[in-house]
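Module 6 notes. Inverse folding takes a fixed backbone as the condition and produces residue identities as the prediction. Think of it as a translation problem where the source language is geometry and the target language is the twenty amino acids. Below is one complete input and output pair. Work through it position by position during the lab.
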């Protein structure tokens, strides 16, 4: 579905809502993602290397977190190690922003010991480019660059 103007954006409790031809749509239905890990130091080093930023660590109860940086009005997420967080290549697929150079991120995945399972692929004007990899913990993760 192609959306054409007029589109108005409203921010309510950090939730972006668009209005298009009288239909209200939530732009941020999903607001948080947790990527399960078994070895926090290994996973943290892997993601810091491929995405080239620092994750902030914290222990909450019996769970260990490494938080991805969040810019204003962005969704967030973390690596999580705990008794109910089991890495898997199956299940829900998480797509991480691969901007500005998705191919370079995939190259760093290989260097960091991950497995690229889909090279940079164009999926159309509305999806841009995607790529997929298996991380250091065995999770299947996607990258996207619009």
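Target side of the pair, the amino acids:
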């Amino acid at each position: 579905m192609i959306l054409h103007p007029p589109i108005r954006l409203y921010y309510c409790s950090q939730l972006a809502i668009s209005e298009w031809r009288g239909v209200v749509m939530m732009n941020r239905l999903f607001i948080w993602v947790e990527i399960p890990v078994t070895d926090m130091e290994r996973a943290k080093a892997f993601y810091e290397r491929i995405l080239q930023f620092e994750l902030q660590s914290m222990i909450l109860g019996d769970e260990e977190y490494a938080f991805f940086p969040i810019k204003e009005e962005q969704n967030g997420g973390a690596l999580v190690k705990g008794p109910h967080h089991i890495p898997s290549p199956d299940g829900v697929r998480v797509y991480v922003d691969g901007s500005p150079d998705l191919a370079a991120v995939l190259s760093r995945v290989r260097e960091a010991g991950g497995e690229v399972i889909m090279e940079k692929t164009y999926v159309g004007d509305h999806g841009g480019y995607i790529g997929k990899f298996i991380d250091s913990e065995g999770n299947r993760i996607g990258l996207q660059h619009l």
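Reference fact for the lab report: Residues 40-51 form the longest helix (12 residues).
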